[in-house]
Records
---
Amino acid sequence: MKRYTFVALLMLLTLLNTVHTGETSALGKGYDARLNGFPYPYPVKVFNIKSQNQALEMNYMYLKARKGFATFLLLHGKNFSGAYWESTASYLNDKGYGVLIPDQIGFGKSSKPPYYQYSIPQLAHNTMELISSVGLDSVVVMGHSMGGMIAARFALMYPTTTKRLILLNPIGLEDYLKYVKYKDVNFFYELELNKDRQKIRQYQEKFYYDGKWKKEYDPWVDMLAGWTIGPDRKLIAWNNALTYDMIFSNPVINEFERLSVPVELIIGTRDRTGPGRNWKREGVTYKLGQYQTLGKRASQLIEDVRLHELQDIGHLPQIEDFKRFSGVLDTILGDFRGD
């Protein structure tokens, strides 16, 4: 009996060690800082960029357009990488449109510098550098979640490069520091270090999908959870903490009236994403993340805008209900098909 107990204990210790080192185990697969082993839908290319006195790599996917068709720039959210745009990219490319999908510095397969002054304008600038490197003069800019903040800032910084701006359930439709306490980066670092697969899935299930989980959502938990058990977990946690600050410190909603390009605002009205809702300032009763009203409010600030509301869809319309999302895309494409 003692022998079998010893063997069982040895097997348990081996399993725990496997999880700690980030190798494949019954509990999932760990990923290094560059997501080696995590599948991307299209070949990944590398753009070498010199930024903030550092030589960095900005990885991206690029599907070329047919002659006479525009190219879409697809900008990912904070808890994602360019890989989650697969269905959207395939849909657009099959119709003839080009698709450029970067992983921002600090995200996905791109560099994770231990020291970098992350800001929404900096990431917009890096994106413009990438666009120039592939020889594009103009793009249709579509940004989701945090990518919506970058997309809006990009359109403000580079209006002649932006043919049209599409904001898909963007965060930043509120100036968060009006309502919440400022938190130091160390606060977010501790939060990130305490994340695991269960917490990541619980958050996404509650706030993204209204408690209704489907297996096709698994990859976007696997990616984040794999980092928490990978060899570079502390570097990933630190980069994730650094990129939280810009969401609170770099608001763009206060400049929406300056947008000079046509804007399409696509809103899943069940979305309740509200960064900072757990540390609101004393006396603040305002409810963050009420997208059933945020879309309408934001559209009133923009001169040339169309609001497309998707009822009973949450933060990721392109993942939760692609059929309804693609129907909105078809409406938008109908205005500039082939342009």
---
Amino acid sequence: MDKYEKIEAIIEQHNATFHQAFSLLPEDKKKAAFSVYAYCQMANDAIDVYHDIERLQDIKKNLKDTFDGQVPDETVFQALYDTIMRYPTSITPYMELLDAMRDDYYNKPIDTEDDFDEYCYKAASTVGLMLLPIMASKAYKDNSKKAKAVVTELGKAMQITHVLRDVRDDLMNQRIYFPEDIIAQHQVKIETLRTGIVTSEFRSLMEFYIDKAKEKYQVFYDHLELFDEDSVLPSYAAAKLYEGILDEIRKNDYNNITKRHAVSKFRKWRLMKNIKKDLKKRGFEV
């Protein structure tokens, strides 16, 4: 098994939606996108799986060495080095992702909506910025400011979706990502959530964030022309499939307290058919 087969195995195991969508990319871009995701998964696992801040520091050192051309003898960094050589980029979003993981380790408080927005940026918009030179190579060079703004919004939409999907697991781990001021505004009682009861106040909070996420997804949908022709379908599919989690939460009366929602294989199949129809109507080749 070569390094890219190992990388793809990581993706398939940890994120079936990402794997399904980005498998539609041309081979070179697929390898590059998967290498970025494998790095992100490694950073996430350092804290979520191993709870090891030293492991995160090692990743930081290895990342700097990789960008300096002193590539560690480790599959993920070797694949990542190939990617940054083929698609030159900045180390900044890679480092900012590690900041988000460090915040998780130290359980940094999220008191305000601005705190939450910053966390969503560091945890997910950074991933979009890592992928931008691969998926939108022309815009990355010619219209960088706008392209970065669009993927920043997409990343925030996906992170909000991630937080809503994982409410049950986060409660079990004594972690609340919703900002204190928004919790208070919607009059949600965390003690009540821990009993598994879905209240009208909690539904209001969920709807507030579902609407916010959908607005951010729409920013991305409105600017698909920024993406390379061969990357429109994979990126649009990834967003639509992930957004589908929000619809599952709504459909199940916002009960993400006792259940972790996912989009079924059948619904993904239906969504993919509609995704291709939508893109054809908008004049994109699929």
